[in-house]
Fold this sequence. Notes:
This protein is an alpha+beta fold. It has helices at 16-26, 28-37, 41-57, 65-86, 96-108, 111-135, 144-152, 155-223, 230-257, 268-272, 281-290, 307-327, 366-377; strands at residues 295-299, 333-340, 343-350, 381-386, 392-399. The protein has three domains: 11-153, no CATH class; 187-268; 276-399, 2-Layer Sandwich (Heat Shock Protein 90), CATH 3.30.565.
Amino acid sequence: MPMPSMVTVTWSTIPFAVRVGVPAAVGVPALLDQANEENTPGAWALCVLAVVLSTASSLGRDRAPVRSFAAVLAVGITTQLTAAASGVEVTTLVVLPLGFAFYFLGRNASTTPSAIAAVASIVLMLGALALNQVTAAPERGGGLDVIAVVLALPLGWAVGVVVRAREQQLDQARRDQERQVELEDRRVTDARTQERLAIARDMHDVVAHSLTTLTVHAEVLRSRAVDLPQWANDRVDALATAARQANQELHGLLGTLRQEQPASEPSSHEAEEPAPRLSDLRGLATAAEQAGQHVTWDVGDTSGLSRLQESALYRITQECLNNARRHAPGATAHVRITRDAGLLTLGVTNEPPARGPSTPRNLPGLGLLGISERVTALGGEVRHGPTAEGGFAVVVHVPVLPAPASVETTS
């Protein structure tokens, strides 16, 4: 099951109006509280100037977070020292934009530079408070409430660091997911290519051989044209031409199937291995028993099948039994082949495993993918899934095509 895609929202993706409006909104509490501190033109001018300069300095927080933070810090310290020197009282909330700058310092800057800037800013703020205590009038020097507000501002930096770490984790998870999807796509593509090559080998071994035989017989008949009536000569010529054309078309189809070469080519021994027949199921049963798998067999009428159909059905049965041994070790498997109204049905069902499965059942199976490829090549359909008893079943329906009659040759 594919993982849901993750969308990371960064501050840089937010509209510009919002990016300007948020830091400006942080300065609103200072403007609202200034009337409670000192309602004079000088105090108001200093408060408004501090809010505007802090907002403007915050605009560079994405591209240059350390310099933006330094500018906001300078505005805050300068405002407090100017207020103390001029004898006006500015609200303590005028330093709230500095907390906002602390947050983006921790979120946007690298850990080491942001930590150095945060420590240096705390030292500067404490120095400014000490200087304010010495130079300002006693009633304007600031008390514990001012110190508490100033010392709480660096908490924004800690929050920013946590958010930055979380975003990095999400970004890494997204890259891992993309890499996993890419690997899975490559794995499925390789499996499809391998299966197409296997089908191509079977078609070459079965169909190409039969077409070649048909062409040879047609040419033999053509060589004895003097013994045949004219209408038979015309049919023999058409037969030979059609056989050669079918052979060429088959080779073109095999070339299409082999267009995508897998990472590892099959060995020459595997390529030359003769295509199996349904009569070889006895050997498959023996191999299954030797592997510790009990299999029951109910094989009905399989006459009239082409060698390509027999080879594909054998391979499908083999893959189903291998899957049963892998996912349900110790479970009994049942193989049943029935035939009805021109449709052959192959069913392979395994009972629930006698012991725990060796591999998780929710992993995508490339064996089932190969089975689907083979059944599609035969013009059939396949269904698979868990049974009500806890086992697993694969059911294949293939239209039955009669095998071509053998042609005797005379010398």
